[in-house]
Design goal:
By secondary structure, this protein is an all-alpha fold. The protein contains 3 helices and no strands. Helix 2 (31-38) packs antiparallel against helix 3.
Amino acid sequence: MVRIDYDISDDSYYLFACAELMTREVEFLEESKIERMLGSEGPDDFIGILRDTV
């Protein structure tokens, strides 16, 4: 793997995106939501539950 260094002139969007992803990860990892997803009755139900986590 080749490492490429680059500068971000305005990192506010990057920082916001990182914070948003961390928040979504915490929401997604709630045990009740994982249990609902595991108990889904099919792909449509699974996608609906996944959509509720976003």
